[in-house]
Amino acid sequence: MQNKTPRLLIMMFLQYFVQGSWNMTMGLVLSTFGLSSIIGTSYALLGLATIISPLFVGMIADRFISSQKIMGALHLINACVLFSIPAFIEAQNGTMFLMLLFVVGILFYPTTALANSISFRHINGVKLFPVIRVFGTFGFMCIGFIMGQMGFSGSTVTYEIAAGSAIVLGLYCFTLPSTPPNAKGKKFSMRDLLCLDALSLFKDRNFSVFMICTVFLMIPKTAYSAYVPVFLKALGYDNAATMMQIGIATEVVFMFVLSFFLMRFGFKKIILCGAIVWIIRSLLFSYSAIDDNVMWIVIALMLQGICWDFFFTSGDIYVDHKAGPHIKAQAQSLRFVISNGVGLMFASSICGYLFNNTVTDKTPEIALTQWHEFWYYPAGVAAVVSVMFFILFKDTDLIFKKKDEVQKGAVAENNAN
């Protein structure tokens, strides 16, 4: 395990470096080239792509081909697509951009689920996954600083950086610890093709409640990721990518303490805390639109650590605990399909409609008043999710095991593998 962990850290760093390159300021890039009306559609297409591909890729990784090999091939193919995107953005060809972006989603998003699955196969998830995942945050921070300080926040150069780094990551994946299929040799069935083993997790009511809450919480999450760079530009900040690293830095801090909080307080309290803080954050963005004190923006960005780690990263660990050893790759793919597939497509459609019908004026003073109204909507959604989760989620399983029991379970699973 000691020899594998550094390799997993590098994998996670590069994974999120690549994602940050093309995804972090995509809305601002489109807005810069006169394509702001398709921001919502762009994220919705990424959601659709996520629904289509990860479950199928997860099934292949569980049964036929080693996860690291699939991951490497997907990144190398995706690099070619990313290289071709800038020309169409600069030509304001929204149709071709959307088509290529859909392909990027088909190729890229399964790799995030695979990265999680590879990590969980070689480590004790509760203890070490937050540490490994935090290196993904470092990767996201690194590319954010590069883009912000080099003035690339609204430039198509971001896609060229993404393509180059995808080549590096694709090649590196073939050096990762071998992660062969757990269910290799098992007779193929339509049940496997439809990933019904992973879908059976929905029989657990608490799992279903968490997934439904995840879908709806994707609305404030998408409002942040898609429109905060545009919002910061409207406030007069030209280095959106750099400013967003304030939030990424707090992700690092909370990632290191996440294991302690999970072992101490359990899933329900930690995930609920993450949902509640999304309410506070959205309200702070709303207030900052009518008050030019930069403090409100800074505080709102700093809450990223709790918003992301307590809800979404804890969710990764929760799903891994719920899944049996033979469907862990499928389960991570399922989790990603629900959040970044169904959730992202649903949330992007909602957020795109709200943005296109709320922030309609080009006059700065009037536009900021409209932004003030815009942020109330994700705050309201987060409030509903928090209440629903508090009332319906009752799961106290697994995470309350004593540390030595968790470690024994991890050893037994590794032996079974």
UniProtKB/TrEMBL annotation:
It is found in: Cell membrane. It comes from the Bacteria. The chain crosses the membrane at residues 12-35, 41-61, 73-89, 95-116, 128-147, 159-177, 209-232, 244-263, 270-288, 294-312, 333-355, 375-393. Keywords: Cell membrane, Membrane, Transmembrane, Transmembrane helix, Transport. One of its GO terms (molecular function) is cytidine transmembrane transporter activity. SUPFAM superfamilies: MFS general substrate transporter. GO terms for cellular component: plasma membrane. It is a multi-pass membrane protein. This is Nucleoside transporter. It comes from Pragia fontium DSM 5563 = ATCC 49100.
